[in-house]
Amino acid sequence: MTQTGARVKFLDPNHPMFRRPVTRWLTALLPLAWGAVEFVLGNPGWGVLFVAAGGYAFWILIVKGPDQPS
To answer: Among 6, 35, 39, 70, which is most buried by a count of CB atoms within 10 Å?
Structure first.
Protein backbone atom coordinates (compact mmCIF):
# COMPACT_ATOMS: atom_id res chain seq x y z
CA MET A 1 0.00 0.00 0.00
CA THR A 2 1.15 3.50 -0.66
CA GLN A 3 1.39 6.18 1.97
CA THR A 4 -2.02 7.56 1.08
CA GLY A 5 -3.60 4.14 1.62
CA ALA A 6 -4.54 3.61 -2.04
CA ARG A 7 -3.87 0.17 -3.49
CA VAL A 8 -1.62 -0.16 -6.51
CA LYS A 9 -3.22 -2.17 -9.31
CA PHE A 10 -1.32 -4.88 -11.17
CA LEU A 11 -2.54 -3.52 -14.52
CA ASP A 12 -4.08 -0.05 -14.24
CA PRO A 13 -6.19 0.91 -17.29
CA ASN A 14 -6.21 4.52 -16.06
CA HIS A 15 -2.43 4.85 -16.26
CA PRO A 16 -1.36 7.52 -18.78
CA MET A 17 0.59 4.92 -20.75
CA PHE A 18 -2.69 3.22 -21.73
CA ARG A 19 -4.36 6.44 -22.92
CA ARG A 20 -3.90 5.49 -26.60
CA PRO A 21 -6.10 2.60 -27.81
CA VAL A 22 -3.26 1.10 -29.86
CA THR A 23 -1.20 0.66 -26.68
CA ARG A 24 -4.09 -1.09 -24.92
CA TRP A 25 -4.69 -3.41 -27.89
CA LEU A 26 -1.01 -4.30 -28.32
CA THR A 27 -0.61 -4.96 -24.61
CA ALA A 28 -3.47 -7.45 -24.82
CA LEU A 29 -2.85 -9.05 -28.22
CA LEU A 30 0.93 -9.56 -28.23
CA PRO A 31 0.95 -12.00 -25.27
CA LEU A 32 -1.96 -13.90 -26.87
CA ALA A 33 -0.04 -14.19 -30.13
CA TRP A 34 3.13 -15.27 -28.34
CA GLY A 35 1.13 -17.87 -26.42
CA ALA A 36 -0.02 -19.31 -29.75
CA VAL A 37 3.60 -19.42 -30.94
CA GLU A 38 4.60 -21.29 -27.78
CA PHE A 39 1.86 -23.87 -28.34
CA VAL A 40 2.98 -24.38 -31.95
CA LEU A 41 6.57 -24.83 -30.80
CA GLY A 42 5.46 -27.51 -28.32
CA ASN A 43 5.77 -25.54 -25.09
CA PRO A 44 2.30 -25.77 -23.53
CA GLY A 45 3.41 -24.44 -20.14
CA TRP A 46 4.64 -21.17 -21.59
CA GLY A 47 1.65 -21.11 -23.93
CA VAL A 48 -0.80 -21.25 -21.03
CA LEU A 49 1.14 -18.58 -19.15
CA PHE A 50 1.15 -16.12 -22.06
CA VAL A 51 -2.46 -16.81 -23.06
CA ALA A 52 -3.54 -16.25 -19.45
CA ALA A 53 -1.58 -12.97 -19.25
CA GLY A 54 -3.00 -11.81 -22.58
CA GLY A 55 -6.52 -12.79 -21.58
CA TYR A 56 -6.23 -10.87 -18.32
CA ALA A 57 -4.85 -7.82 -20.12
CA PHE A 58 -7.63 -8.04 -22.72
CA TRP A 59 -10.27 -8.20 -19.99
CA ILE A 60 -8.85 -5.27 -18.00
CA LEU A 61 -7.78 -2.98 -20.86
CA ILE A 62 -10.33 -3.70 -23.60
CA VAL A 63 -13.50 -5.16 -22.10
CA LYS A 64 -13.63 -3.20 -18.84
CA GLY A 65 -11.61 -0.25 -20.15
CA PRO A 66 -10.54 2.83 -18.25
CA ASP A 67 -12.82 4.36 -15.64
CA GLN A 68 -14.95 7.13 -17.05
CA PRO A 69 -14.39 10.56 -15.46
CA SER A 70 -17.29 11.76 -13.37
So the answer is: 35
Q: In the chain, which residues have pLDDT < 50? A: 70
Cβ pair 43, 34 in contact under 8 A = no
**Nearby residues of 5 by Cβ (< 8 Å), 6 or more positions away:** none
Distance CA 62, CA 46 (A): 23
Q: What are the pLDDT digits (tens) for 9-22?
A: 789 999 999 999 99
Residue 26 inside a domain? The answer is: no
Structural domain count of the chain: 1
DSSP state of 41: T
5 φ/ψ sector (left φ>0, alpha ψ -120 to 50, else beta):
left
Instruction: Identify the pLDDT of residue 2.
Output: 54
